[in-house]
Each structure stands twice: as C-alpha cells, then as structure tokens.
Design a protein that fits this description.
Layout lengths: L3 E3 L4 E5 L4 E6 L1 H8 L10 H13 L6 E6 L3 E7 L2 E2 L31 H4 L1 H7 L8 H10 L3 H25 L3 E5 L7 H15 L3 H4 L7 E3 L6 H18 L1
Parallel strand pairs: 4-7, 7-8
Antiparallel strand pairs: 1-2, 2-3, 4-5, 5-6
Bound molecules: zinc ion.
C-alpha cells in the first residue's frame, strides 16, 4: 500500500494519490474480514519493493534505496539489511520535498514537489500517449527520432529524476539507488538519461563528482517481481514471529 502505513496495526493514514487523507483507515482488519479471517499484514509498497530488490541483489543489496517512478515518486530504503520506515512511516517520501515554492500545486497540498516533475504521471501530463502505448516509451522514441520538444521534455524529466537520486544519496548515502516503478520499463534508455543528467549536475561540483552518483544508479531487475518478493519476505517474517 502506498503512503503512510503503520505495519504494527495495518492501518493507513495518508495515501495522497488514493484519497486516503488523514483519517486512520484499518486496511488490514477490513481485508482480513473480507477474506474470511485470514491474518493480513500491511506494509508500504516501496518498503517491501526495497526488501525484494535487496533480496534479488544478494550480499550487495544490504544498503540500497528503491526509487519508484510511477503515479507518484517515493523511495523505500534498506540500511544494513533492515527497512528504514521512520517514526511515522514517512522515510523515503522524497516526492513531497518541495523544490520550487512557486511551482504547480501537488496532491499533498504543497507546491513544486519533486513528484510534480519526476513521476510517471508528471511525464504523462507533459507528453500524453498518442499511439496507445505507454507515454514514457512514446516520449523517449520521439526524442530519439529528433523531435525537439520530446528531447527537451525527456531531458527535463531525466534531470528531475537525477535530482531525486541526489536527494536520496545526500540523505542516506546508500550503495545503490535502484530505479523501479512503471517508468523503469523503459530500461537502458532511462538509465542512460538519468546517468547523463547526474554527470551534468556533478560537472561543476568536485564535491558531487566525488560521490560517483551515476555509477551507483541501476535498474530494478526486469525479471523479478520485487514488490511481490518483498511482500512474501515480510509475510514470512510475520509468520515466524507468530510461531515464536
Ligand atoms: Zn507533494
């Protein structure tokens, strides 16, 4: 479940893009009742995706951020093999860091949030699908074919995603930032564009260059359903804790 989730009681208080806005919604209880009393555990979707990505990477994945480019923009963070949820569950909600106080309004009630520039829906709003295929794919193809508007929008999008990567690295300094979410289906062209934007942002800053941000960005594995794997891992831990 996206948003602010309390895994202890399975409730959700804020899911900005799903209309859950402040009132505590007892999702685990409702789901459990709907499926005949089976125990239900609820966690934040990106926390479990980060766990799944960490699991897929093996020993190299104990320290990573899973940055999802989808309807919104947010990250799940694994530090030392453990998910960092935060006191209120807001750790990794970097999409709602305002970067332009005069920018467009965001669904969260602030203005100019990173999510307004770097999410899949932000990209879809600027380059709507014209041929019935996903908007990111159509945009990147038009850019590759030389369309000047498409190139500009693609570059601005890549630069906004690179800013999100930079925010994550300057906050938690993880070994890997793994790009996931719907937009990551673009594959290598997305990774190339984000790496180029990170290099461009680092060019004037020996400090930023020293962090080698472009080398530390990768794509979520296309053949592993990381969120489902992570959810299974969370469920297994939960089962073990019931038995103990
Ligand atoms: Zn926001």
């Amino acid at each position: 479940m996206p948003g602010l989730v309390d895994p202890a009681d399975g409730s959700v208080t804020h899911a900005v893009n799903l209309g859950v806005d402040g009132a505590r919604f007892p999702l685990a209880d409702r789901l459990s009742r709907a499926v005949g009393g089976v125990p239900v555990h609820v966690d934040n979707d990106l926390n479990v995706a980060a766990l799944g990505a960490a699991h897929a990477m093996g020993a190299d994945g104990t320290d990573l951020a899973f940055l999802a480019l989808g309807t919104g923009l947010a990250a799940g963070i694994v530090l030392g093999g453990e998910v960092r949820r935060g006191v209120t569950g807001a750790a990794g909600e970097i999409g709602h860091i305002p970067v332009d106080p005069h920018g467009p309004p965001c669904a969260c009630g602030q203005r100019g949030c990173v999510e307004v520039y770097a999410s899949g829906s932000a990209l879809g709003a600027r380059w709507p699908s014209r041929h019935g295929r996903p908007a990111p794919a159509e945009l990147f193809e038009a850019a590759a074919a030389g369309d000047p508007d498409a190139r500009r929008i693609k570059d601005e999008f890549a630069s906004a995603v690179a800013s999100a990567v930079r925010i994550l690295q300057l906050t938690v300094d993880v070994r890997h930032v793994v790009l996931g979410g719907g937009v990551s289906a673009l594959g290598a062209p997305l990774l190339d564009a984000v790496r180029a934007a990170l290099d461009a942002q680092s060019r004037t800053s020996p400090f930023l260059s020293s962090l080698r941000l472009a080398d530390r960005v990768s794509l979520a594995p296309a053949d592993v359903p990381v969120a489902a794997v992570g959810a299974a891992l969370v469920g297994r831990r939960e089962e073990l804790s019931w038995r103990s």
